């Protein structure tokens, strides 16, 4: 089961694509994608796409209240889930709209079907 975790410090009005370096952003098999993500404060938005589908609409808020450096878990965060076909690119786009820097932490799991 491929797994990827990330922690990003986003400065004011910056963007990030944390999955850009992940080896499995193009899954080799039909997979169930699970994303857990949170930010250290309000003002971070996201867009999650798999292939041609936008799973999380552009500019949707990222859940805030996370502690910097602590990865989200199922105990305190509802996962975003989608079925991904082989070869479809998984893209997570983040944007900090706040006047302060924010830490964003996340975990991605792929479960082959």
Summarize the structure.
By secondary structure, the protein is mostly beta strands.
In the CATH hierarchy, the third-tier topology is known as: Jelly Rolls
Total separate domains: 1
Residue share in β-strands: over 45%
Tally of DSSP helical segments: 0
Name given to the CATH architecture: Sandwich
Features:
four-stranded antiparallel sheet; 8 strands
Detail the topology: elements first, then pairings.
Blueprint (H helix, E strand, L loop, with lengths): L2 E8 L4 E2 L14 E9 L4 E7 L2 E9 L18 E5 L5 E7 L5 E11 L1
Antiparallel strand pairs: 1-8, 2-7, 3-6, 3-8, 4-5, 4-7
Q: Would you mind describing this structure in some detail?
A:
The protein starts with a strand and ends with a strand. It has a single domain, classed as Jelly Rolls (Sandwich), CATH 2.60.120. The mean pLDDT is 93. The chain has a 4-stranded antiparallel β-sheet with strand order 1-8-3-6, with no helix packed on it. The protein has strands at residues 3-10, 15-16, 31-39, 44-50, 53-61, 80-84, 90-96, 102-112. The protein is mostly beta strands and 113 residues long. Helices cover 0% and strands 51% of the residues. The chain is globular and about 40 Å long.
